[in-house]
Amino acid sequence: MSERATGADRLAAELRQRVLSGDLEPGAPLREEALADEYALSRHTVRRSLERLVAERLLVSEAYRGVRVASFSDADIVALQQLRTALETEAVRLIRADHGDSWPVELLTPLFEAADRMAAEASPEHAHSAFHRALVATAGSPRITEAYERLDTEMLLFLRQLRSAYDGAQLCAEHRDYLSEVQRLGADAARQHLAASTAMLLSLRA
């Protein structure tokens, strides 16, 4: 982190890591006074950090209940996946508008490499996340990329809370196939891929 980072920046980064690593459990309360004492910061600084993570949807703030780590219902997951689908299908549409149904090797190579990292890592959630971020970024739309990255942080939190074992090799194969299908079928392939993902996530919760 930059030397110019403020105390609020540093605390937000620390709490973000603790939430995404599972160190702070779903529903765990975060008290301004306790955090101010723990990190030797003012309550105003702590409040700004918490507000930032609430805006990222990693925390929730409710009247009379304070701030706590976000948790997810089935409806939350469906809504999250619907938004992912809207952004990713539009990104795919833009890529195909530029490159048709046969994308250039310089575009595909980093995407296949991102897919291959799913098989190489012990915990493939971050590699999976990086693959979809890279695909969306390939569209070259800064606003879509920014919106997707904000959403992706929330998705990582859900996957961490799910605590399910992922088969990295299977994920790799599925996403290499997805790259072939999305070139051929475009947005329809993206919708099918994410619909299957939604069904899988809901079944794991059950």
Protein architecture, described:
Keywords: DNA-binding, Transcription, Transcription regulation. This is GntR family transcriptional regulator. Residues 5-72 form the HTH gntR-type domain. The chain is mainly alpha-helical and 206 residues long. It has two domains: 7-69, Arc Repressor Mutant, subunit A (Orthogonal Bundle); 74-205, Up-down Bundle (Four Helix Bundle (Hemerythrin (Met), subunit A)). The chain is 72% helix and 5% strand. The chain contains nine helices and three strands; from the N terminus they run αβααββαααααα. It has helices at 7-21, 32-39, 43-55, 74-99, 105-120, 125-137, 142-162, 168-185, 187-205; strands at residues 29-30, 59-62, 66-69. It has a three-stranded antiparallel sheet with strand order 1-3-2. α2 (32-39) packs across α3 (43-55). The chain is elongated. The mean pLDDT is 92.
Provide a short characterization of the protein structure.
This protein is mostly helical and 206 residues long. The chain is built from nine helices and three strands. InterPro entries: GntR_C (IPR011711), TF_FadR/GntR_C (IPR008920), Tscrpt_reg_HTH_GntR (IPR000524), WH-like_DNA-bd_sf (IPR036388), WH_DNA-bd_sf (IPR036390).
CATH fold-level label of the largest domain? Four Helix Bundle (Hemerythrin (Met), subunit A)
The low-confidence runs, each spanning 5 or more residues with pLDDT under 50, are: none
Give the termini distance in whole angstroms.
39 Å
Helix content: over 70%
What general form does the structure show?
elongated
How many H/I helices? 9
Order of strands, main sheet, comes to 1-3-2
How many distinct beta strands?
Answer: 3
> How many structural domains does the protein architecture include?
2
Kindly provide the radius of gyration, computed on alpha-carbon positions and rounded to a whole number of angstroms: 19 Å
**CATH top level assignment of the largest domain:** Mainly Alpha
Major β-sheet annotation: 3 strands, antiparallel
- Portion of residues in beta strands equals under 5%
Structural class: mainly alpha
> Order of SSEs, N→C?
HEHHEEHHHHHH
